[in-house]
Amino acid sequence: MSTPEYSASAKSRFDITNLTTDPFVVATWSVAMISWVIAFIGSIVANIEGSFPRFTWWGLVFQLLMLVFLPAVYCFDVVEWYRLFLTCGYSIAFIYTTNSATNLVWSGGSATGAASAGVILLSMVNLIWVFYYGSDNASPINQWIDSFSLRGPKRSSVSPFHNSRPISHDKYSGSENDEFKHSSWNNQRYMSSTALNGLENVSQGDTLETTPFNSPDHDGLGTNITAGGTNITIDEFPYTARALYNYQKSPDDENEISFEKDEILKVNDIHSRWWQAKRANGEIGICPSNYVELIE
């Protein structure tokens, strides 16, 4: 069974599989709904039998609204747009349920006890949701939780290039435009420490001649350096990685690349959340590190 692609851009099309393929949401939401029903029925019976804290009713209504909202944002695949709202909403719900639990747990009667058990369980789920939606998708706990999802880990909301201005090809012309494009990140070439092996014996008087990346003589595999008559090829993508999931690049970021599950990529700069990667067809861009694993 292939893993569905994940895209950070929101889709307005309703698809219930966005919800059912995420075990964490299905499990926590189910527990929360059962807890809400227990608390609601217990509150009704307790209110009939005697005095009942009115504050709890508003807390239960607010909790129900948040419980209805959660599956809606998943089915429409707009969770990333509402993470802040979900965090704030469940923080408020946590305050309501904990205050209700304080008032109910010391009251007598089986109905009140059932209501208090329900709001206590709701408090626990609300707290879990606050930590989950309040954390970035690249955090260790969120990555571990999302690893059980059939859709794979979610894209980190923090990208080093999302805040950069796009290159305007209309504003620049001629050599100015060429110089600007050649100075962009995807034309920069880095040498790792392992790639520098073999240059230790280059004397101070030797001349280093490099073959530019955009040169017709460049083979696309590395940077050619001539030192003292010796031709050395430096691999610009010294690591090999395998894609764990399908990935569809964001339409808002021209620096990303798309790839398929089990695709082999050559990668570099692997010490951050986003790695520089090169596909077999020569396409170069960045990819999220939690979507690939190093194999060489």
TrEMBL record:
One of its GO terms (biological process) is regulation of actin filament polymerization. Residues 236-296 form the SH3 domain. It is a multi-pass membrane protein. The keyword Manganese does not apply. It is found in: Cell membrane. One of its GO terms (cellular component) is plasma membrane. Belongs to the SHO1 family. This is High osmolarity signaling protein SHO1. It comes from Cyberlindnera jadinii (strain ATCC 18201 / CBS 1600 / BCRC 20928 / JCM 3617 / NBRC 0987 / NRRL Y-1542) (Torula yeast).
